[in-house]
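Troubleshooting log. The previous structure file for this entry was overwritten by mistake, so regenerating from the original sequence record. Sequence copied from the archived sheet and checked twice against the printout by T.R.
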Amino acid sequence: MKAKDFDRLFDEGCDITKYLDESKVARPGEATQRVDVDFPSWMIRELDREAKRLGVPRQSVIKFWIAEKMEEYRRH
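Regenerated output below.
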């Protein structure tokens, strides 16, 4: 896909995640570390429901919500 087509889809609000290679995503200076967390099945269902609504992977929802809570904690 050409960059201009990708940009157009993004600008139109389309879900572009299927065009991204998430295996190569990195933030300079921020190494990642894998963490295993067990969740009850009801929580997984809710996470999956929200991920589907947003058009993102479950992991993105988890990271976003944790980051949101951490920011809230820092403000208080």
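The mean pLDDT is 90. Archived copy saved in two places this time.
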